[in-house]
């Protein structure tokens, strides 16, 4: 048995940050990670040509102060997302080329409808306390509605509806009919409002770390060194009056307290003794993830740039819902990433790999021409079937969950504390939110121990 001050379950950004802050404060810590790598729902692949691919979370932006602070701490610079050239959008049988946030060539009704909806969402978000959205004045009413139902009542234009439905539902890798309106507003409010979540120019994630997310998490893991045990999925956590015992298949860690950072959607895979309080146990059953593919198509050069295209395209319902220029700061090779989520991702799951590749490349070639059919490499990552991610990038709340079980998101259960981006009151669902949650949880366990000794 290993005896340490604190144990951390999960070596994503939340777990790594929590462990780092605890070690820097002079405490001994062990991190148990189920995968054979660190990074969690981020995963940077370094390639033989010196380039790299972010197979998971990749972007950062304004207001994400804690991930930037971590980058500064380890000397990781950033570079701006390539946006020169036209973006493309395919809605209701129409093709739009545009620059900025939305095509101004949409019908006047659609543009006006988008403006009204955006203004309404902004006002609604102002009434949401990000640290306790279930206490908002209209929380009960909004938590009974789905995002889809709210759009039914507030969109008059079919293109506006498609755009708003797909943009928000895509974040949660699930259908709009699965999402609580209160949850969507909470996540927007946690990021400062709908501008950030809906990708409004000047407010959205617009930069990437040089070297990918791996440049950050590898630096942190090097600092933690042998405190991280890989390929150690936690099977059980037992707590008593003196501490906790955390067990994997081959290790047993004894600590004063434990920070669990795994996604809410899979936290129930751990056996807790004694059993968790009912609200927390039921929360684990009620915050699922969705389906998402992230597919990188690598070309000798970013040929779309010569065509005065930004690489960004959006086509709800297609095999490649979103594409984006994912080149490194060097600009070569050309990397175009397709991200497909929700129902479309589940449909891709049902295809054989060769058929899936053909469907994705055909969808991309319709936008960028025949050169898109022949990448020099094609790298597919299906997060939908990642055992230790539980599905898409964010666990979401269906109707009724936040008002009934929301207070359990961050509340400690005895000596068990919770982190992960889903537990963050700021930047929920983003990597910055994971970092914030790790720092909060690290301070929390130290504070609880200090008060227990008084």
From TrEMBL:
Keywords: Oxidoreductase
Domain of life where this protein originates: Bacteria
One Pfam short name: Amino_oxidase
Domain Amine oxidase: 13-445
Cofactor(s) demanded: FAD
Signal peptide: none
Record's keyword annotation contains Oxidoreductase: yes
GO MF annotations in UniProt: oxidoreductase activity
Binding positions (FAD): 33-34, 234, 422
Keyword Oxidoreductase listed: yes
Family: Belongs to the flavin monoamine oxidase family.
PANTHER family for this protein: AMINE OXIDASE, AMINE OXIDASE [FLAVIN-CONTAINING] B
Protein name (record): Amine oxidase [Rhodococcus jostii RHA1]
Organism: Mycolicibacterium parafortuitum
